[in-house]
Design a protein that fits this description.
This protein is an all-beta fold and 212 residues long. 2% of the residues lie in helices and 67% in strands. A hairpin with a 5-residue loop joins strand 14 (170-178) and strand 15.
Length: 212
């Protein structure tokens, strides 16, 4: 049996998310809880139950919202190039999203997110500059805005990533590395350039994975 725990903290809020996964052949059974369930009186608030077959489907049931979310994944080849897509439907929100990624080659891929509503479409292009650096510009047709992200993998496997969202004018930077005892650690800093007082917001997150 595998288990994982994630904790995060920022200047305004502290939160924790824990999940326990059971492997049943090709299926994974998972129970996840978030901050209020862990820190306050034990309850079923913020409890999500999941059944997944990695790479094929994922079904989540959110108990407090009584919401079921389905995800189905598949892939096929277009002109001998792999096309991966994910179909997601949330019953409570009555919202459907289709994500698709076409791998042009090892350094180039195009991704599309479509929400089945007018102009609810996002387009992203990923350019790998060698083995270590990736540049990802994207465009949101809904609000006519663009985003840009640049990431670089360091010699020890750590990843540093910078991003900018034109719709919110938020500039971000994060650093992710593996923890010595297993799992990973991530630090994120962001600043809203539209605010008069440009005060950076810091967030730290750590994930531990272990066998039970």
């Amino acid at each position: 049996m595998k288990a994982s725990f994630r904790g995060s903290y920022d200047a305004d809020n502290s939160d924790a998310t824990g999940s326990v996964a059971f492997n049943a052949g090709a299926l994974n059974l998972r129970a996840s809880v978030t901050g209020d369930t862990l820190t306050n009186t034990p309850s079923l608030n913020n409890l999500t139950l999941s059944v997944e077959n990695p790479g094929l489907f994922n079904i989540d049931y959110n108990l407090p919202k009584k919401d079921v979310k389905f995800q189905f994944m598949n892939s096929f080849r277009v002109n001998d190039k792999p096309l991966n897509f994910t179909y997601t439907h949330s019953m409570a929100e009555n919202r459907t999203v289709l994500d698709g990624t076409l791998m042009l080659d090892s350094n180039h891929k195009v991704s599309v997110n479509y929400g089945f509503q007018p102009r609810d479409c996002k387009l992203k292009y990923s350019l790998g500059c060698g083995c270590e650096t990736t540049v990802e510009p994207s465009y949101d047709f809904g609000d006519n805005s663009w985003d840009l992200a640049v990431s670089r993998r360091l010699y020890d496997g750590s990843v540093v990533r910078g991003s900018y969202r034109s719709s919110t004018k938020v500039l971000g930077m994060d650093f992710r590395t593996k923890a010595a005892a297993g799992g990973s650690f991530k630090v994120t800093a962001s600043v809203n350039l539209a605010e008069e007082k440009k005060i950076p917001k810091l967030t730290a997150e750590s994930i531990w994975d272990f066998e039970m």
